[in-house]
Each structure stands twice: as structure tokens, then as C-alpha cells.
Write a structure and sequence with these properties.
The structure is a homodimer of 205-residue chains.
Chain A (H helix, E strand, L loop, with lengths): L2 E6 L6 H9 L5 E5 L7 H6 L7 E4 L2 E4 L1 H11 L7 H20 L2 H6 L2 H28 L11 H17 L8 H11 L2 H9 L7
Parallel strand pairs in A: 1-2
Antiparallel strand pairs in A: 1-3, 3-4
């Protein structure tokens, strides 16, 4: 079945999906749009809810980054079979997205220098100190992964951290050794490493 | 295994979970806090991310409304076994939550009369006209349910509509006959109907 992922030419909500597709050894068409060109009206109108990412497989489409990520995880041996454990990981990814949404990154992208500085300050003084010790603790008590072994929740956290690092020009995981180790683990998975080496580096100005 | 749900004494993000627990015939402790008393610091401090709802089963806890709802659905025969179909329903519930989040209901609850009027206007002129024709179409092409038969996504939509109706004092589904029919279908499921008849009506002033 032909697989296709449409997203921006940036990490954002799409990179953890790309990582998992590569990790699982899936061939897929990696279609990318430049943020600066968005909205491309013809593309936007073709999206069921006007938003990227959109995933296609066998002629059927799926929107919503977490729905796509969870499905790709199920096809890449990154989703445990136990239903309670699946639910715990669902909670983890929603907690990660809560952190992400508090960053108001759309406002940050569009903002002037003053807005950017204020939003960044809030992220570093409020949101990271609230969420990251909790993520660190969950990882630490589970052998460095959210579920005691590699799962999709690990990919989602690393995807969000890499995106935050791109936008803020920092390494937000620095003071959290277990999180920092997980970032390295994911980036060094052989097929992920290979993919990272072949793609162009992302930029944000 | 003893089951317990902690949430506010309101529909909100908790009612579709309560409906599914009743629908599935599960006995559970239905713990409720009054919105006006919130935050109750001792309760808030006991929550892993400071937020309700929190679900407990066999001494283990789970946060995040969608993680809880999906798990309860899996225990109440409201989750299809096909992984693609599961993913399609995941996308549906995220689309419903996108609609919900655009309503900025926390701002609405706290707002003065002018703020309330402006937010309500935006919901009725922008968000409902964008999302509801899409939901209506998805339901209509699938025999009145999001997946051709009753699933958790139907409960999530009805839970959000009932909540919006409580806050806005309207019936936001009126102009969408397939959505309106689904609301009635869920409310008339025997065990749900029985539960609704025994609980106190919700109020918002």
C-alpha cells in the first residue's frame, strides 16, 4: 500500500511520525511545504479540516498528528498490546501536547521580538519547570522510557523537544539527564540516524 | 477491581466517560467536586498534572480525559478492533476536541458579560459553521455514527455538545439533523437514560 505524509518542511508535529516510519522500515512519500508559503490554498482546501499533517495509505486518508502517530506506531512495533499500558501512553502523549500547546508556538512564530521574548520567558520559567520534572520522573522510574521499553510516547517527546529547540535556539532538555539521554537514544536509532543524516537541517529565523 | 472517577460536578470532559462506564455496566465510584470550590488544594496536589479528570482502577491511576475515555471504551465494547478504524476514530475525537478548545470555555466561565457575548458570538459564527457541517457529513455517510456503528467517538461528540448547550443555554445541534439524532440516540441508550434520570441536573450561571 502506497504511504504518503504531507506536512511542513520542519520538525513540528510531523517529525516523530517521520522517525517512526523510518524506524519501522516503511517506504513513504515525504511531501513537504515551506512554512513561508502557507497557506497554499489548493492544498489547504484538500485537507479535511484545513490542517497538516495528513497521512495517506492505500488511498485512504487520516488527519490529526496524534491519530497518525499512534497508527504508525502500531505498524512499527512501538505500541504495546496491553490496553492499560496503551492508555498510560495515551495519557503521556496528551501531557506532552499540553506542554506543547502552552508554548503558543503559532503566536511565537508570528510575534515581534518583544512577544517572542515574553513567550519564551514564560516557557522557561513556568512550563518547562512544571512539566519536565514530571517527564523526567516518569522516565527515570521506567528504565529511561515511558513504558520500560521504546514506544511511540518516547518519539513524541523527542519530536516536541527538537521542535522547541529549533524555535528557541536552546537545548531545553539540558538540566534533565534522563530526558537528554532519551533524545540521544532516539536520534541514534540506526534508521533514524540515517534519515537525519540525509535530510536538510531545519531552520527558523 | 475497584473503579473510581474524579471530576467536577458538571458534564464537561467527564460526562462521556460516565456515560460509557454506565453503558458498559461498570460499577464505579463517581466522585465530584463543585466548580465554585476549585481549586481544592489537597485534591489538586494529589493529581499527577494538577488536572481532572482522574480515573483509578485496581489501585492504578490514569489522567487525561481522552486516554481515560479510550480505555473505558475498550472495556465497554465501544472500540473497534481494526487498527485503521481505531485511528480514524482517534482523528474524529481530536477534531471534536479542536472544536471544543476553540471555544475557550475557561475564559468564558471566568469572563464578564461582554467577554461571554464575544466568545459566544465567535463560537456561533465561526467554530460551529466550520466543524458541524464536517461532523454532520461524516455521520451521514456512516449510517449516523462515526464508524457505521456505535463507538466512543459518538459519546465524545455528544458529551461536548451537551456541555456547550449547558454553557451557552442553547441547542447548538439544532440545524444538523444527523448530529441531533445522534444526541437522542446516546441519551436514550437504556443504561445512559437510567443514569441521566438519577443524577441531579447540571447548572451554570
Amino acid at each position: 500500500m502506497a504511504k504518503k505524509l504531507q506536512y511542513f518542511n520542519i520538525n513540528g508535529l510531523g517529525e516523530s511520525i517521520r522517525y517512526m516510519l523510518h524506524y519501522g522500515g516503511h517506504k513513504f512519500e515525504d511531501i513537504r511545504y515551506e512554512l513561508k508559503d502557507w497557506p497554499i490554498q489548493s492544498v489547504k482546501d484538500s485537507l479535511p479540516y484545513g490542517q497538516l499533517p495528513l497521512y495517506e495509505e492505500g488511498g485512504k486518508t487520516l488527519n490529526q498528528s496524534l491519530a497518525i502517530a499512534r497508527y504508525v506506531a502500531s505498524q512499527s512495533q512501538l505500541l504495546p498490546s496491553d490496553l492499560w499500558q496503551q492508555a498510560v501512553l495515551d495519557a503521556v502523549v496528551h501531557n506532552i501536547y499540553d506542554f506543547w500547546n502552552k508554548n503558543k508556538i503559532a503566536e511565537y512564530i508570528r510575534g515581534d521580538a518583544e512577544t517572542k521574548a515574553a513567550l519564551k520567558k514564560q516557557t522557561f520559567e513556568e512550563h518547562i519547570p512544571f512539566y519536565f520534572p514530571r517527564f523526567e520522573k516518569e522516565l527515570k522510574t521506567n528504565k529511561g522510557h515511558f513504558a520500560g521499553k521504546l514506544t511511540w510516547a518516547d518519539f513524541i517527546l523527542v519530536g516536541m523537544i527538537e521542535t522547541a529547540n529549533l524555535f528557541y535556539g536552546e537545548n531545553i532538555e539540558t538540566n534533565y539527564p534522563t530526558i537528554a539521554a532519551l533524545v540521544k537514544t532516539i536520534q541514534n536509532l540506526p534508521k533514524v540516524k540515517e534519515y537525519i543524516a540525509t535530510r536538510n537541517p531545519y531552520t527558523f529565523k
